[in-house]
Design a protein that fits this description.
Blueprint: H1 2-15, E1 22-30, E2 41-46, E3 52-57, E4 63-70, E5 72-79, E6 86-87, E7 91-93, E8 98-99, E9 103-104, E10 124-126, E11 131-134, H2 146-151, E12 156-158, E13 164-166, E14 169-170, E15 172-176, E16 179-180, H3 185-194, E17 200-206, E18 220-226, E19 233-244, E20 248-260, E21 263-287, E22 294-320, E23 325-350, E24 355-381, E25 388-412, E26 417-427, E27 430-444, E28 450-472, E29 475-478, E30 484-502, E31 507-524, E32 529-547, E33 552-563, E34 574-578, E35 581-584, E36 592-603, E37 607-627, E38 632-655, E39 660-677, E40 680-699, E41 703-712, E42 715-717, E43 720-722, E44 725-736, E45 741-748, E46 755-762, E47 765-773, E48 777-788
Parallel strand pairs: 1-8, 1-9, 15-18, 35-38
Antiparallel strand pairs: 1-4, 2-3, 2-5, 5-6, 5-7, 10-11, 11-17, 12-13, 13-14, 15-16, 17-18, 19-20, 19-48, 20-21, 21-22, 21-47, 22-23, 23-24, 24-25, 25-26, 25-27, 26-28, 27-28, 28-29, 28-30, 30-31, 31-32, 32-33, 33-36, 34-35, 36-37, 37-38, 38-39, 39-40, 40-41, 41-44, 42-43, 43-46, 44-45, 45-48, ...
């Protein structure tokens, strides 16, 4: 590994010896009477193949500007509803600013009441502090859920339970429209599965977010942007989709925006229904603690059948009280009904007696999740320089009812009944309330610099009452050992300052500092156990960019991050898979802290290389533990270790020809865990290669196709040593109805390679597992777009006052 890193570093140094320069392009757009044209869409195109590099919109004076443009040939394209499209002449960009002559737009001869302006965005865009994925640019995203779109995005991996990692590190904060999801683990995965790709616009991936963002998230922040419209009048889209393999899947979504005078109304509604299957095989060996001699072996197979019916929606309104004042309200929510049945068959071999016994179990789970959230926001522009003040107030509530039933049957090796069946019934309701408020201030400074500052406070209250009953000889008996009532409260107060700007012609910098004060307390009502924690931490961030001449730019960044325990991970309640396998919370969890450093190089604006190093203490990780006396295996979150990771990644997005575009992401990283699990020292290390890629093809004017997928070599997920896994998808699309309609079809996981395999070996724990879900699916969808009005920039949807709190809700499914 050291030789590989040395070789790659040498390659980077040799490549980066070539310099790069950056320039700017500006100009003015007018109408036929030579009056300024505000809100015209301006695109910067490559002179070689007319592919889009950047977009912008003219201001009220008709002015536009593109900055940090790599040297080369370009041209400018201008569109506005009701006017004919126009172009500039080809221009040669160097390190000197270019000011183009005013470009005139002429009225279009025929009526444009239903015109929809479309453009071909690149699938991947690399920016100074984030990677941007344009979801609709990929035809293989049709019929996919938001989680499946994330799974094949650069640097992102999703494990067997739906947990999201970024560049091999867990602890990612997921935002939707800059607002936290307030979910984690299985519940976050369920929400993302319920959201369709047709509702998404972009995915922003930030491995080291600036100080304005909450310090939570060991690996960084993923911001999922839903579709928004920028038009007076009305506009929107409607999508219907159907998927099938073994079981059917349906999805529908509608996006709508209407703006008139001082009021802008917007909504995004979606429905998703799906049935699926899964198979999980676990083999476990129970051994003596001292001699390591084999006590018994368990060979278990679980077959799962599940269905989910989800509705989600967002409704909002902006009121423009004046030229510089905007008030807004956004109401979001979802309901999710899920039913899951697990049929488990276990062969148990007792080594000492040489006997074989069998156990079968049926577990049924009915879960209903409800969410309601309200965001009130305010924006005040203080002067003509762009100085502004913004504020947000949020109230979020999650409520779930989870009813479980576990029935167990016992047989000897010949299939004869050996004892009475037993039944365990559980009711696990939970209620989570979150109150949050924040205020942000932005002040532009001279020469393009800016200063940002803000404050935030949040209060979280969770109420979890897990009750279990056993059915013994036909009578229901309350199970006090498994039942638990847990109340948790948390308050986080934060303040930050951030300064960014240019140090010289080739150097740019950004420095930030965030202060977070955390106060939490937990109360296990059943046992009268209580705890309180109070701590205050500083979280610095720093970015330094060097614009070399001709071909290269470099960015060095550093950030300190925190990952607090999920609310539900602190709850010590038990969730069963079968008689011998369950999950349990851990109220003794502490937060983990990480230090992250990255050095990236961008070559010719299409090839990015990044070196990263991070060190994490008190890492929160799911561990597997055993009770040899009861032959039980259980999983729980624990502060098991310190973690060190270093890696290198390559990302390239480039048109090969006019009809072929290529996007490839390669990441090689080494993870090492050192710590204690159940008082047993462990040290696990692995080097992993992750490959994401897509190849896009255009046929004629209305056809396109894509091949995409990912591959991951053997590695580690916490204490689990995983085997290689991959997936390949194919997709086709065609524009219909004069470009207003789009028909798409894809086949996900064509080769059926997405199967999880792993093993766990440390201390007395000796287990292997494999699993397969219904990953191969054929999807079809139809999208219709409609619009009437003129393009206009609506105000940005800012991040709400809620930060990482929402991403930490979990039900321990």
């Amino acid at each position: 590994m050291r030789q590989i890193i040395t070789l790659l570093a040498a390659l980077i140094v040799s490549v980066s010896s070539i310099a790069q320069s950056k320039g700017s392009v500006s100009g003015k757009i007018t109408d036929q009477q030579n009056k300024p044209m505000p809100s015209a869409t301006v695109s910067l195109l490559k002179g070689k193949d007319s592919s889009v590099v950047k977009f912008t919109v003219t201001d009220k004076a008709g002015i536009y500007q593109f900055e940090n443009i790599t040297s080369g040939q370009y041209l400018v394209s201008i569109t506005a509803v009701g006017h004919a499209k126009n172009f500039s002449k080809k221009i040669e960009v160097t390190d000197q600013p270019i000011s183009l002559e005013a470009i005139e737009l002429l009225p279009q001869a025929k009526s444009l009441g239903g015109v929809t302006v479309t453009s071909n965005k690149p699938l991947i865009e690399q920016k100074i502090d984030r990677t941007v994925v344009n979801v609709e640019a990929s035809v293989t995203n049709v019929g996919s859920s938001a989680l499946e779109v994330l799974e094949k995005s650069p640097g992102i991996t999703v494990d067997r339970d739906g947990n999201i990692s970024l560049k091999g590190k867990e602890g990612v904060i997921v935002l939707i429209d800059n607002r936290p999801t307030y979910l984690s683990g299985p519940d976050l995965a369920n929400l993302l599965r319920s959201m369709q790709a047709s509702q998404l616009d972009q995915i922003e991936i930030m491995t080291n977010p600036p100080a304005k963002f909450d310090a939570a998230g060991n690996a960084g922040v993923i911001n999922i942007k839903t579709k928004k419209n920028k038009q007076f009048g009305y506009n929107g889209s409607a999508t219907v989709g159907y998927g099938q393999w073994k079981y059917p899947k349906f999805n529908e979504s509608v996006n709508f925006n209407y703006r008139k005078n001082k009021v802008n109304f917007f909504t995004n509604l979606g429905h998703n229904y799906g049935e699926s299957f899964g198979v999980l095989n676990i083999k476990r060996n129970f051994r003596e603690k001292d001699t390591k001699g084999l006590i018994s072996s368990f060979d278990q197979e679980t077959k799962r059948k599940s269905n989910s019916n989800t509705f989600n929606g967002k409704v909002g309104m902006d009121y423009f009280a004046g030229k510089n004042t905007t008030f807004g309200i956004v109401v979001t929510g979802f309901t999710s009904d899920q039913n899951r049945t697990n049929n488990t068959y276990t062969d148990i071999f007792e080594t000492k007696t040489g006997t074989l016994s069998k156990q079968s179990g049926v577990s049924k789970e009915e879960q209903e999740w409800k969410n309601f959230s309200t965001n009130l926001n305010f924006r005040q522009v203080l002067d003509t320089t762009g100085e502004e003040l913004t504020a947000d107030l949020d109230f979020i509530r999650y409520n779930s009812d989870n009813a479980t039933a576990l029935l167990n049957y016992y047989f000897d090796g010949g299939g004869a009944i050996t004892s009475r069946p037993d039944t365990l019934i559980g009711s696990l309701p939970q209620d989570i309330k979150i109150y949050s408020g924040k205020m942000d201030y932005l002040r532009p400074l001279k020469k393009g610099a800016k200063f940002e500052a803000g404050i935030k406070s949040s209060i979280v209250k969770t109420d979890n009452n897990a009750g279990y009953d056993s059915v013994l000889n036909g009578a229901i008996v309350h199970d006090y050992n498994r039942s638990n009532y847990f109340i948790y409260e948390e308050n986080i107060n934060a303040a930050y300052g951030n300064l960014s700007g240019s140090l010289s012609k080739k150097w740019n910098a950004q420095l930030g500092l965030r202060l977070e004060n955390t106060n939490s307390r937990g109360n296990q009502v059943t046992t009268s156990e209580k705890f309180e924690r109070h701590y205050t931490q500083l979280f610095p961030t720093a970015y330094l960019q060097y614009l070399a001449s001709k071909n290269n730019s470099f960015v060095l960044n550093y950030g300190k991050r925190i990952r607090r325990p999920n609310y539900q991970s602190l709850n010590p309640f038990i969730s069963f898979l079968d008689r011998y396998t369950y999950q349990q919370g851990n109220p003794n969890l502490k937060p983990q802290f990480s230090h992250n450093i990255e050095l990236s190089n961008t070559y010719k604006n299409y090839f990015t290389t990044t070196l990263n190093y991070s060190r994490t203490t008190d890492i929160i990780q799911e561990v597997i533990e055993q009770n040899e006396e009861k032959s039980e295996t259980y999983a729980r979150q624990a502060n098991i270790a310190k973690q060190r990771q270093f890696g290198i990644s390559f990302n390239t997005s480039k048109p090969i020809t006019k009809w072929w575009s290529s996007n490839v992401f390669v990441n090689v990283f080494n993870n090492k865990f050192d710590g204690l699990v159940n008082n047993t020292p462990i040290s696990i290390e692995a080097t992993t290669l992750v490959l994401n890629g897509s190849q896009q093809f255009k046929f004629a004017k209305t056809w396109n196709a894509e091949v995409s997928g990912f591959f991951r070599t053997p590695g580690i997920e916490g204490v689990i040593q995983t085997q290689a896994m991959g997936m390949v998808s194919l997709g086709f699309g065609k524009q219909v109805m004069k470009g207003n309609g789009n028909i798409r079809m894809n086949i996900r996981d064509v080769l059926y390679l997405q199967q999880f395999q792993g093993k766990i070996q440390y201390g007395n724990v000796d287990a292997s597992l494999s699993g397969r879900n219904e990953s191969r699916v054929v999807n079809m969808s139809f999208t219709y777009r409609f619009a009437k009005g003129k393009i206009n920039g609506t105000p940005k949807r800012r991040a709400s006052s809620a930060s990482d709190e929402q991403s930490r809700v979990g039900a321990g499914n």
